[in-house]
Amino acid sequence: MAEIPARPVLLTGASGALGRMLVKGLGEAGWTLRLTDIVPFPDPLPRGASFTRADLVDGMAILRLAEGCGTILHFGGVSVERPFSEVLGPNIQGLYHVYEAARRERARVVFASSNHTIGFHERSEKLDQDCQFRPDGYYGLSKAYGELMGRLYWDKHGVENINLRIGGSRPKVDNARTLAIWLSYADLLRLVIRATLAPSVGTLVIWGASNNSRGFWGRDGRAVIGWQPQDSADPFISEQARNVSGNPVEERYQGGPYAAIEYSRREPSPKALFPAG
Question: Of the listed 99, 138, 139, 145, which one is catalytic?
Answer without folding.
Answer: 139
